[in-house]
Known about the structure:
Elements (H helix, E strand, L loop, with lengths): L2 H11 L4 E7 L2 E7 L4 H10 L5 E9 L3 E10 L4 E10 L4 E3 L8 H12 L2 E3 L38
Amino acid sequence: MNTEQVRGALAAAGVAGVLSVDPFEGIAARVRFDPTSATGVFTAVRDKLGFVHLSTVGGIDWVERYEVFYLLWSDPAKSYLLLSADLDAKNPHIETASFVWPSANWHEREAWELVGIGFDHHPDLRHLLMPDGYQFHPLQRAFKLHEPEELEVKVRHV
């Protein structure tokens, strides 16, 4: 599958919220979308284009905005597809993809915990790597390293 095929398939499916479909080295395409249309884009990409495997979800703090990205795999197309959306820097959040791809659950927890991107309606948005009650997001650009502090660490089963 190539960029033109992805663009054509999304247009034929009438997917709302797609901002651009661009070539991206080594994968079928990069699809930029409006975050308010996330669930529709996720469902169409899975059902109409056949990208049924979510490989990863991540986030980037670009200071003036955040970016959330999803890397997907299609067995029939034998290719990856990159979805990305820009989020507001003051309140970065987007609808969860975990109802479309269950594997998004832990990836989104990690992106929330480390970068600070909120995932609306996530079924279990809680700490995965950091201790409960930890209020910082270590991969945000504003995160400052500080002196070690005493943290109460509770043992829990994940």
